[in-house]
Amino acid sequence: MLLALGDVGLGVRLEEQLAQAGLIARWDAGQVDGPRGGAIASVVVLDADHLGDRLVEVADAWRRQPSVPGVLAIGRSAAAREGAPQARVTLVTATAKLQTLIAAIRDAEAFRLATAMRWPVLREALGLPRAEDARPAWPQVLAAARAIDIELPRAALRWYVRHYATPTARLDELREDRVLTVPEIETLAHVDGTQTVQVLVKRGPLDQVRSARLLWALVSMAAIDLTPEVRDVATPARRALADVRAHLRARRALLEGSTYYDVLEVSPLAEIEDIDAAVQLTGLRFAPEVLATHDLAELAALVQPTWELVGKAHSVLVDHAQRGRYHDWLRQKLPELRTVWAVDPTTARSAAAAFARGQRSLGDGDVHKAMGDFATACRLFPGHPEYEANLSWARYRVQVGSGRDRIEAAIAERRGLEELLLGRRPWPRALVALALLCAAGGDVDAARWHLHIALAIDPTMPAAVQLAQRLGMHRA
Q1: SS (H, E, C) 95-154
Q2: Which residues are CB-neighbours of 251 under 8 A, at least 6 positions away?
Q3: Which domains does the chain possess?
Q4: How far is CA 181 from CA 139, 215, 229, 355, in A?
Q5: What are the tens digits of pLDDT across the range 25-37?
Q6: Which pLDDT does position 38 carry in this prediction?
Q7: Higher pLDDT, 116 or 338
């Protein structure tokens, strides 16, 4: 084995101790930053503290070596603990007992072919001679994969249980060549980029052992791509999942240290009817029964706490006595909180009036005046989705009227508005403005997506209906 450690004392000590234990070990500080040629051992021990955030990169560089060595790491820093799972390596501290290190080395060697899912590694793991990755070789590989000891596929996939599996063109080729069995084809029907490995393995109709073998083989053959996030939004299902994940993650950050008004996105002027409506709209995006239709992987843990907060906010704000006590508490704590919505009622009314003037000006075709009114509303009530969205659209029109490139202006305004709306409940009129910007920037699919959400909430909104017709959307 190779000890690629930068610490001279640690490297020499471990080399001697491992030799005394009967293992062949060589310390080489010259390869601490990655492989540099020379003899390659069956196991490489990396210096995680030295590598820091380069641990993933260097571990992968070693795995790409022809001998595909097993890789483990020594370290104790926070960066090492965080990076080890991402690098798919076992982390051992420098003060660990020798027996612990030796056990980790044995495991790394035994499962060295489980840490890289690539064609040549797949062939070696199956005990097959090297061969070109081409159609004539596929049937033999799949047949051998169906009988392999499950421990190797299980070890390979355990690092990816929460990764999404997306089919590639290679999977279509395998179907065309009819090298997959009917149960395999039925199992793979669920591989659409929205299901994680842990869900797919259990889904069937293949049992879990055969599903794991199949997924491992197909990932190694580049017929399935595994990614920690949704790979792309090429299908409506993937776009929906990516959208939900982005909103959940953003909402957690958005509501940290905020108020109950921010949870429901209502101002202190809100009546009980407004609060009830806000809960209903929030539920369209964040209710557990809505999110249960998605495989959220690691973000599933956020669903219940997110919705419980909505319930708490609603119970306080619809009860006059509790709301009064909450206002007393807010007066003391507001300087310590982050808030968009806990604004002075007088200011909220002034902002609403400015926004109404802006809408009238926009309807009259006076874009410059509309932009000024919307800007006033946003200055008084910064962060309000409808105010900010209409300002973005008016500003875009003014910029284009002044000679700025249409697509460039639309993309810039869209980017800012998308960021603002992340983590919030759906706001139909804001989504229409966002759809307009997407369409102006040439992204018709995104425009249709945002418009679809807006129309699901308010199917009679004139601006949304008109834009849907322009975009060729067919409504039931």
Answers
A1: CCCHHHHHHHHHHHHHCHHHCCCCHHHHHHHCCCCCCCCCHHHHHHHHHHHCCCCCHHHH
A2: 286, 302, 306, 423, 424
A3: 2-113 (3.40.50.2300), 119-227 (no CATH), 236-336 (1.10.287), 345-470 (1.25.40.10)
A4: 11, 14, 29, 62
A5: 999 999 999 998 7
A6: 62
A7: 338
| pLDDT at residue 229 greater than cutoff 90 | yes
Half-sphere exposure of 449 (CA within 13 A, CB side): 19
Range 297-310 average pLDDT: 96
What Rg value do the Cα atoms of the chain yield, rounded?
Answer: 29
Distance between CA atoms of 15 and 29, rounded to whole angstroms? Answer: 12
Rounded average pLDDT over 149-155: 94
Contact indicator for 212, 157 with CB cutoff of 8 Å: yes
Going by their DSSP bridges, the two strands 224-227 and 164-167 should be labelled as antiparallel
**What does the pLDDT look like over 441-453, one tens digit per residue?**
999 999 999 999 9
Residue 39's pLDDT is what? Answer: 60
Neighbour count for residue 301 (Cβ, 10 Å): 11
Structure tokens at 202: 């259990």
The residue with tokens 């599903």 is: 211
